[in-house]
Prior knowledge:
The protein is α+β, with helices and mostly antiparallel strands. It folds into 4 domains: 2-143, Beta Polymerase, domain 2, CATH 3.30.460; 147-232, Orthogonal Bundle (Hydrophobic Seed Protein), CATH 1.10.110; 233-412, Hypothetical protein af1432 (Orthogonal Bundle), CATH 1.10.3210; 413-467. It has helices at 9-20, 30-36, 52-59, 110-115, 140-145, 155-161, 164-176, 182-191, 200-211, 217-225, 228-232, 234-237, 252-268, 278-286, 291-294, 308-322, 327-339, 353-363, 367-376, 383-407, 418-425, 431-447, 452-467; strands at residues 25-28, 44-48, 65-67, 75-80, 83-89, 94-95, 102-103, 125-127, 134-135, 148-149, 179-180, 243-244, 247-251, 296-297, 303-304. A 7-stranded mixed sheet has the order 3-4-5-2-1-8-9. Strands 6-7 form a two-stranded antiparallel ribbon. The protein has a two-stranded parallel ribbon with strand order 10-11.
Amino acid sequence: MRQLVDLSPVLDEVGRRFTAAGFQVHLVGGSVRDALLSVHTGDLDLTTDARPEQVLELLHGWAGSTWNTGIAFGTVGAEVRGARLEITTFRADRYDRESRNPEVAWGSSLVDDLARRDFTVNAMAVSLGPDRTVTDPFGGLGDLMRRRLRTPGPPEDSFADDPLRMLRAVRFVAQLGLQPEDDVVAAMTAMSGELSRITAERVQAELTKTLLQDSPRTALELFVETGLADVVLPELSALRMEIDEHHQHKDVYSHSLTVLDQAIALELADPEHESPDLVLRLAALLHDIGKPATRRHEPRGRVSFHHHEVVGAKLVRKRLQALKYPKDVVEAVSRLTFLHLRFHGYGRGEWTDSAVRRYVTDAGELLPRLHKLVRSDCTTRNRRRAAALAETYDSLEARIAELSAAEDLARVRPDLDGNAIMELLDLPPGPDVGRAWRYLKELRLERGPLERDEAEAALREWWSRQQD
């Protein structure tokens, strides 16, 4: 374990400064865990028996900068030669169990400080003093090696102190490949309702971290099975047992998780686009959430979900807004949900050039994501059908490429701008100019690029009809 402190030469200097002043200081928590897993660590988490004001004094004149935004909770931040440190005084907090805010109290014992942490894999410490003592009172190293997720004490006590820890358990399944012990799962299930005490912003942050892992499916299954999703994302839980008319051997819930798996695979395979892609992953997971509300039983035992993309887009917007996602994320995921079925009208390639232009224009900058979402939405086990769908979408993408090369579809605009419209029709700025502009854009989508005289003639004819 001595090699852990070699992660950064700054740690050795921190150890010497604190030890010389008569204080303990330890590398702790996620920093130790990640180092044991040979994972690159970002901020370095330290704990000490020095009080915050003493920590600031020890850092004065040595750290490049310090910040004390977390000082009320005993945390001082520092940047030293590119390394970011978060140094927290030993804590012995008590929780009121009505909110997640602790009554902050300083502690004097490293073991007591570790005991209040969320999971055993985060309750390990390595001294930065001369002896480099390892402190692992709850068997975190063994749990990490066995990929086991446990709490230092009874999980009910841990989750009652801070219900957000249940969502952290979900994240660690995806991030670290850990398997929660039965008592942890039981406590999460029994106490899932306590998650309603946590602010939407904190919940959203944990859910996002889970979704951005390479393989979040198992974690999301735990999220649903324990009832946490019923509190945070009930639309996901509602997908269970809603039979999909295209894939009657699967329920929509399983289908949605498979779509997410396939979208991530396409995303990771595409070097031209950012990964991980939160918008694509949310759209893949939630694209069918309008199905429960639109389910209808049809003759011969069939089930339909007419207009579920319209209902789903509204539900996506409402849920993501409630979770405090940024506006651009909300709108993008909602738009992808609304558009995800559009391709199925393409049939065997019967779309006109006008229809292809509208597909591209309606998707806008989301088109690369829409391509991935639509391809991922094919989860049939029928290889011939899957191949046919892929071939059809290949055909659509080829037509998009051809039209884009000829017409610059990414920036479809009317053939006349606002100034030209006002001059031609002798109009002042106002609503009529906007109406004329929209008419010309529709004409452009329908017929493609026009010569200027054609566009002017069409506009005059349209304007004449408006005066009748």
